[in-house]
């Protein structure tokens, strides 16, 4: 149950602004690193913090890629880019994503599949809705466009300081169902693909997280980084000090690392995500 709805609305609005800003920057030749930095800069300029490093996963990557400090990739015409961003404001978190096909429109059907799936499920949200109904709406909308839902990725509830809270909303029906209630915050995020419909773990996606406070005796550098990021996800672009970057990479096994999620048949993946606050009558989209 959300106590301070206005703070969640503000986190939502800032996340949505950052998403739209970033989407507009996804043009042929744009630097992947600079787009991530612009998006995160906007969130900070509006008085919030990025809830996680801006994800810019491309083509067969579904999620969890953020540029490292040396990333020199420039987007090419036809790249299918998932920009997934979130703002964090005193515990209130937003989570929202858009897919952009850079400089062309050959995959409009795939984008439409993800978007209509998100809209169909969003329209069903209200106090008492079953997650099974949402999953079914997502699966049907994606299959109706001739694509596959990614069956091992899910939407999720959000709680203060917790991006992925207890309840999952799978992209396919058939999992056990749970009931959602007014006052809950929920992220609906369908993934559609022309591939096999599953993701596997790929290489390290440059996102790190402390599972627990490090021992300051053993590693003062790590303890210093912990003071900055606590248990929230972060990346080396947010660590300007070369020495601290090196220490973090050396001690990486003590941190949680996130692999990039890659489509099992290297199929292209599209994602669409909005965060909602459930109300007795329906739901308020916090990231319009
Ligand atoms: Co999400």
Verbal overview:
- The relative contact order is 0.19.
- The chain has helices at 5-25, 32-45, 108-124, 131-144, 220-229, 242-250; strands at 49-50, 55-58, 61-63, 80-85, 87-89, 92-93, 96-101, 148-149, 154-158, 168-170, 185-188, 191-193, 199-210, 255-263, 269-271, 274-278, 283-285.
- The chain is α+β, with helices and mostly antiparallel strands and 288 residues long.
- It is globular and about 55 Å long.
- The mean pLDDT is 95.
- It is built from 6 helices and 17 strands.
- The protein binds cobalt (II) ion.
- Residues 95, 156, 187, 189, 273 line the site of cobalt (II) ion.
Write the layout of secondary structure elements.
Elements lengths: L4 H21 L6 H14 L3 E2 L4 E4 L2 E3 L16 E6 L1 E3 L2 E2 L2 E6 L6 H17 L6 H14 L3 E2 L4 E5 L9 E3 L14 E4 L2 E3 L5 E12 L9 H10 L12 H9 L4 E9 L5 E3 L2 E5 L4 E3 L3
Antiparallel strand pairs: 1-5, 2-4, 3-14, 4-7, 5-6, 8-12, 9-10, 9-11, 11-16, 12-15, 13-14, 16-17
Cobalt (II) ion (CO) binds next to loops.
